[in-house]
User: What shape does this take?
Amino acid sequence: MTENNKFVCPAEGDAAIQAASARESWRIFGIMSEFVEATERLSSIRPAVTVFGSARVPVDSPYYVLTETIARLLSDSGFAVISGGGPGIMEAANKGAFDGRSPSVGLNIQLPHEQRANPYQDVSQTFRHFFARKYMFVRFASAYVVMPGGFGTLDELLEALTLIQTGKSRKIPIILVCSAFWAGLVDWFRNRLAEEKMIDPADMDLIQVIDEPDRVVEAIFKHYEARPFAPLPNEREMMLNL
Assistant: This one.
């Protein structure tokens, strides 16, 4: 070896590997505790609608005002409203629900920047791991309302579509709000993904695009006209394997 290379004896290397392995094992227990704690806190909050959207939207944005209006209508109609618990669209969703009849739920995430818990939460749960948080968005939602957003919002939207398309999650309404914002993406889904057989054309029926707050609520109730909001026994079994 040259003097610029550091020699590590096998015993020291093995000890480092064992220490790292032990840390990973304890981290698994931390992840498990997030799942257990959040499941216990959220299991009684039904029915619920998850609202996704950008953390970067200011309070004077039309998107913020529209989200707050939709969340208030949902809350007064008997739906708990679940958001990511942060600023922007998430804050608007929690604020609308907080002023309504039903619980406002924030599933917060620890991030090095951008995320801070908004003050409009009846139930607040903080996560260190994105995948545990995303599981809770899916597990306890009777519908998704997707407002304008960035990469995070697209990630949550596409994961929801994938889970339903592949039969890993029950079919629930996925409603995109603000047609002008979503038009390019929806056209691309239809004209590229469906036309080139990357998805089945019927998969486009998983998405509804609605602009009016009242119609958002109506679409959710219409979906459940002939069935309960709670998962059916076979759906409950399916969602154990998310």
Q: What stands out?
A: The CA atoms of residues 55 and 86 lie 6 Å apart.
